[in-house]
Write a structure and sequence with these properties.
The chain is α+β, with helices and mostly antiparallel strands. The protein has 2 domains: about 100 residues, Ribosomal Protein L22, Chain A (Alpha-Beta Complex); about 140 residues, Ribosomal Protein L22, Chain A (Alpha-Beta Complex), CATH 3.90.470. Helix content is about 30%, strand content about 25%. The chain starts with a strand and ends in a 9-residue tail after the last helix. The relative contact order is 0.21. Its EC number is 2.7.8.-.
């Protein structure tokens, strides 16, 4: 997949800070023995709690891929890469996964998402410039329901009211019927990506966020409870393939928010070779 550069260059402009984000796409693994050895006790419990086999496969594949990518950089096998997903609101292990115990002074930021036959892992870090803290990242992918061409299914009515404000609902309602479901999910993925980047997830009301409309460049326009939120968020639209929509958000530390010279560089890649390589070797030998 080709790289996506979110800035416009000219001869007299150079970024003070460059944030690089690698976005890895994969299909869920069908054999649980391929990913179970990489999961710790807490992750195994979460995996086993899923009722459907496809949900367990998506969860396990995302965790394995994240640990393979981080372990390759740190020189550790996947099973020795620890991801702390403690929710800051309730203490349960369903929050944003944070790498812990890695040799790097500032480990990269990490975000995972999965839907249908798409698994995505985003890894972000500052590669140029000095910031007081590392960035954080959020990614979300959603599959369009099979009946999306018929308009918004009735099952989404309550979700629509809870996640979009009045203006956003009006915009979705004015779209051609065949585009309304995709329009709603564009809003949803953009908002969830932002809330993942901030570490809040779905504990924060989505209606308090205003993002750009479908078809426009992804941006956070307003956040009622955090007036300076838009200054610190950089966003991008991803390419998950037909039948899906996806978005990415990066939260900058406070000392970078006032400077507009922040270049977010995104590279989307297929992770199929990474997972295929891992499947052919014992887990403990997958180092570096």
């Amino acid at each position: 997949m080709r790289a996506t550069d979110t800035t416009f260059w000219n001869s007299d402009w150079y970024p003070e800070t460059v944030v690089e984000c690698h976005v890895w796409w994969a299909a869920p693994l069908t054999d649980p023995h391929a990913y179970l050895p990489a999961l710790d006790t807490t992750e195994r419990a979460r995996h086993d709690a899923y009722q459907r086999e496809e949900d367990r496969a998506r969860f396990g594949t995302a965790r394995l891929l994240a640990k393979l990518l981080l372990g390759r950089e740190a020189g550790l096998p996947p099973a020795e890469v620890e991801l702390d997903a403690t929710c800051r609101e309730c203490g349960r292990p369903h929050g944003r996964p944070v790498p812990v115990g890695l040799p790097a002074t500032r480990p990269p930021a990490l975000s995972l998402s999965h839907s249908g036959d798409r698994v995505v892992v985003a890894v972000a870090r500052t590669v140029q410039g000095a910031l007081s803290a590392e960035v954080t990242v959020g990614v979300d992918v959603e599959r369009l329901p099979p009946e999306h061409a018929l308009g918004l299914p009735p099952t989404l009515d309550g979700v629509l009211a809870a996640s979009l404000d009045e203006e956003e609902r009006r915009i979705v309602g004015e779209l051609p019927e065949a585009d309304r479901c995709a329009g709603f999910l564009t809003y949803w993925t953009r908002k969830e990506a932002v809330l993942k980047a901030t570490g809040e997830g779905l504990t924060a009301p989505m209606r308090r966020l205003r993002v750009s409309r479908p078809g426009d460049r992804p941006r956070l326009l307003r956040r009622e409870d955090v007036p300076d939120g838009p200054r610190r968020i950089r966003m991008a639209e991803l390419r998950p393939g037909p039948g899906y929509t996806a978005a990415l958000a990066v939260l900058l530390p406070e000392d970078a928010a006032d400077g507009w010279r922040v270049d977010l560089r995104i590279v989307e890649r297929s992770a199929e070779r990474v997972l295929a390589y891992a499947a052919q070797r014992p887990m403990a030998t997958l180092v570096g």
